[in-house]
Amino acid sequence: METNSKKYNKWIVILSIAIPVVVAILFGVKVDVELPVFLPPIYATINAITAIVLVAAVVVVKKGNIQLHEKLMKTAIILSVLFLVLYVAYHMTSTSTKFRGEGVIIYFYYSILISHIILSIAVIPFVLITFVRGITNQVELHKKIAKITFPLWLYVAVSGVVVYLMISPYY
Description:
By secondary structure, the protein is mostly helical. The protein has a single domain, classed as Cytochrome c oxidase, subunit III, four-helix bundle (Four Helix Bundle (Hemerythrin (Met), subunit A), Up-down Bundle). 81% of the residues lie in helices and 0% in strands. The protein is built from five helices and no strands. The radius of gyration is 17 Å and the shape is globular. The chain crosses the membrane at residues 12-29, 41-60, 72-92, 104-131, 152-170. It comes from Lutibacter agarilyticus. Pfam families: DUF420 (PF04238). This is Putative membrane protein.
């Protein structure tokens, strides 16, 4: 099975580099289009649902339900992609909202925001490698990396919601 997963390695590297680069480039692109919906609460909700799906996936796999685990993980990936598309669309069509909190809360906000951004980039290869190891039935290797991927991905999903909740009064 390991040779089967090697064919994915090039794609893991390409996507792990391309996604953050494309997102950074698109942040510099401004489109003069008014979107019909207010996106931040929508993509924050998607992040929250992703966190719930991730926890549910761990619970069901511990109970031995591999098929449901796989479906939940695919759902988490789809939700993360949807989040990213909506997040980029919002930032391409809207000016960024500045956090205007004061005192010690500003340090808390920026520590959450910066760690969220860094880990959202770092988690990409972990998710892809973990997924490939799962779909290629490399169970022990999948379990080993999933112990790292799960808390990282969960942190990214939850911290995204926290950042939204903290900045939402300033929209």
